[in-house]
Model the fold of this input.
Amino acid sequence: MQSNDDQDVPDPEWLKAYMSKKSHETSDDLRARELLQAGAASELELLKHERKAERQLAAAMATLAKHEQRLRRFQSQVEESHKAVIEAEAALRESQTRRAAGPRPTPD
Done:
């Protein structure tokens, strides 16, 4: 029969197998942790790019709105100018018609 001292010492083969398995699990755990960290870092980088793209979109939309507002104002000015040209052409034709008709006879 073995003494108490012998019972406290594990079998060397069992210890070797246990340590091998333990280090393998640790390696797997480490690899899993590294993969999770890399995935989290990639996700963070993607979020940063997405936020940047969102800010660029917001800026582009604001610029578009500003340009559309300016365009409406300019279109209004063009319409007003177009009306002024039509009125000026009508006045010119009327003046040319009166001149072509010659002087009006004055009543005596």
Summary: The CA atoms of residues 47 and 95 lie 71 Å apart. The chain is about 90% helix and 0% strand. The chain has one domain: 14-100. The chain has a mean pLDDT of 87.
